[in-house]
Structures are given as structure tokens and as C-alpha cells.
Amino acid sequence: MPKMNVPGDESVGIDDLSVYVPGLFLPLAGEFSTNRGIDPGKLVKGIGIERMAVPDAHEDAASMAAMSLLDLMRRTNLHPQDIGKIYVGTESAPDEAKALGTYVIGMLEQIYGKGSFQECSTVEFKAACIGTTFALESLSYWVAAEEEGKVGIVIASDVAKYPLASAGEYTQGAGSIALLVKKNPRLLALEQIYGSFTRDENDFFRPMGCTTAIVNGKHSNQCYLDAMRGAFDSYAAKSRRLEVITPEKGECVTDFVDHLLFHIPYPRMVEYASAAILRHDWKESRRSGEIERELGREPAAQDYDDIEKYRAAEADYARRFAKSEQFLQAYRAKVKDTATLSRQIGNIYTGSIYLGLASLLELQKIHAKERVCFGAYGSGCSALFFSAIAQPQAESVPLRGLLQRLEERKQISLQDYELLHEGKKKESVLPPKGEFALMGIDHQGYRHYEYVE
Ligand code: COA
Description:
Blueprint: E1 12-20, E2 24-27, H1 31-36, H2 40-47, E3 51-54, H3 61-76, E4 83-89, H4 100-112, E5 121-125, H5 131-145, E6 151-160, E7 173-183, E8 188-198, E9 204-205, E10 214-215, H6 217-241, E11 259-262, H7 267-282, H8 287-295, H9 307-323, H10 325-334, H11 340-345, H12 352-362, E12 371-378, E13 382-390, H13 402-407, E14 410-411, H14 414-421, E15 435-441, E16 447-452
Parallel strand pairs: 2-14, 4-5, 4-6, 11-12
Antiparallel strand pairs: 1-7, 1-8, 2-3, 6-7, 8-13, 9-10, 12-13, 15-16
This protein binds coenzyme A.
């Protein structure tokens, strides 16, 4: 049993999770790829997304958050008075000041009764795609100190949106995930070791008043990889110092990790991220010799007098590393399955790493005592690398039927997608049924939601 860095007898972590995904999707290969003049192979293989989830006219980040929380409460038989705090990670909140969680509470009180959540506090975490992870980290400390037996909820909810016909367009998506955070969780106990990295960057941002993000795409990939390496080093040093992971000579930290989850802006990115982290981690281990035998020596900056030539050699080596048998074996065993749901949904920004967790759970890939590591990234930029241990009850938590639910969605035309994207479609494609719906925005900008039976 791995040693855990949890004070006292009680662990804290993720007891269960729920996922909400809109009922509409747009396939990337077909009308979309033809209209945009993009080879479908690039979208499905090069980017890794087959279908993008598209929010209907009555959906936004708040209604989706309310849906994932309602499902979580029903699944776990949770009552409003059991919940002490709801922390929300989002970068597409509909209001600049009012906490998204207050809209969520307003919606949930339509089901559970007015005032039923009045002792529950809620706050929003904004840090691009890492907001939910910072929320989870903070909430886990509150749960550990909580003495009245209350639990905490972390919700991720986002509409990932870029301008039409831009390079970001095919990495859109939408959805929400609600995590139940409590003592003695059934799924994952956090080891409470957080390796962090932060730097001021302009890779992705959304100035006030803009409905879509400004993104410097290639730069954002590089920032992601740099930040992830920094956060991983910080995690590795802390976990060694705390004697939670103690590699012997020839071993490395990832030898002690069973599943590696990363932020998933698009599935190929987890391949790039895992290649960068494993290559970095294996350098000091016995694997470095095996890799060198397969690929030859890594390019070293001092061997090049021209920086561009070094960069080209480095890019070529990175490509060959990502195709090496050593890497592919580790990727298939520890990483590949985490992107299963994202291929059918696209990017859900701050929740996407937990969509990776949902993928592993739905595929029943997580087994008791395994170590699951998370590498979260948020543009701007920050990364957090942390770990959790799968609990004995993890395999008995009921599944969610997510893969089946995704098959039951409605495919929409390119025209409907573009009208929804531009806010020009006022009627819902699928009229709301058994869900929270945005009914209107009044003259002051306040949003009105209703549960539609
Ligand atoms: N068949 C198969 N693969 C193909 C292909 C084809 N016909 N054409 C291109 N590809 C591959 C490319 O070779 C590349 O893979 P490689 O890295 O292994 O070489 C991959 O598809 C991506 O192509 P590329 O041209 O590099 O992508 P892009 O210019 O379309 O940009 C993003 C991709 C992610 C940068 C862009 O979509 C974006 O800005 N997204 C929003 C921001 C984001 O998600 N950032 C991520 C970090 S947070």
C-alpha cells in the first residue's frame, strides 16, 4: 500500500462525480471539415476530436453546472443541508460579479425548496482551465478541517468557444462535472502533495467584453508543456522529501504512478504532455539507456552553434520519442484511455482533466491502491501536479452510462451550430425536458432559469 501524506486517520478526496454534457453534437468529419477546407484526418487523428458537444439555446455554464450537481445529489442521495461549500471553477461564467454558484443554488432550490441551501457558501475560481483544480485543492483543506460532517462540492462548468473558422474552432466543446469531496472518500484519497508552477503568459486570455478567447495556439501548447514540467519537478521533489515516493537507483517517480491524467484541450495534447513528462522523468533512470539504444543521443544545445538547427533537431527527437516503443507502451498503459470521453465531447476547459477521470471510471480502469496523478494546466499560466490513491470501494461506485448517453445525443447541422455559436438561434433545437433551462435575460442582465419537467 503506498504511503500517504494525509494527516490524522481520515483521508479526504473524491467520493463520486457526475458529468453533464449537452444533448447536441457536431461531427468534425463531414460537413464541418468540408466547409472549413480541413482534411478530416487532421481533426480526428491529428487533433483527436470526433464530435464536439454544442450547448443548445437554453444552456449556459450555470444551467450545465446545476444539471451536473443535481445528478450528483441524486446519485449519492445527498441533501442540501449536507453540503457546506460549493466551489465552482469556470472561465465562461455569465456574470462578471455574481458568483455562478448562486445561480446554481437558485436552480437547485426549485427542486429542494426555497432556502434549503442558505447555509451553504459558494465562490467562483477563475484561472482558465486550472480553476477547478485550485478549487479542489482549497476545498480539500476545508473538508479536512470540517467538524460537522458536512461535505464539499467542486463544480467545473464551461462552454469552450473560439471564433468561427479559427484554428481554435475544432477544439471547442461544452459540459460540466460535479465532484463530491469528503472524508473517507470511496473513489480517490488525495495525497495532499501539490507541485506548482506559475508564470505570466499571453497564450490564451479573454479581455472584458469578449465572448470568445484570444489564443496564441502554438505558444499555448509550449506554455502548457513548460508549466507541466515545472509542476512535475515540484511534485517529484516534494513527494521524495515527504518520503511518499522514494525511487531507488535506476527508478523514477512515474514508475510509482499507475494513471497519468492531464488537462485535455484536445486528445492529442495528452500525448504531447505525457511524452514530455515521461521523457523528462526517465532521464535519470535506467530507461534512459534503453531509449538511447532505440533513438540515439538526445540533441544537446552546446553541440549546435545555430539555435534554429538545435530547435529543429530537438523537435525531430521529440517526434521520434513519441513514436518509440518505450513511450508507446507507457502511454497505452497509463494515459491513452483518459481521452476517451474527450474525443466525443471536445474541450470543456476547466473540467476536462476530470472528464479524463470519468473516462477511466466508465471504462473500469481504476483499481484499488493504484496511484492516479493529475497534471492540470490553465493558460495565463499555471500548472498543478498532484496525486491520489484509489480506494478499496472505488470499483463498487455505480457507473454513469456516459458512453451510452453520448450515443443518444442529437447531431446538428453546420448551419444550426453556427447560429447557436453566434447566439442567433433563439429557439432550442431540442426543447428542454427534465432539465434546467435559461428562460430569459431581463433588462438588467439578470438571468432567469427554470426546471422544465
Ligand atoms: N492527418 C492526420 N494528422 C494531421 C493531418 C492529416 N491530414 N494534418 C495535420 N495533422 C497533424 C499535425 O501533423 C499535428 O500533429 P503532430 O504534432 O504530431 O505533427 C496535428 O495534426 C495538429 O496540427 P497543427 O497544424 O499543429 O494544428 P493547428 O495549427 O490546427 O493548431 C491548436 C492546433 C491546438 C494549436 C489550435 O487548434 C488551437 O489554437 N486551439 C486552441 C488552444 C488550445 O487548445 N491550446 C492547447 C493548450 S491549452
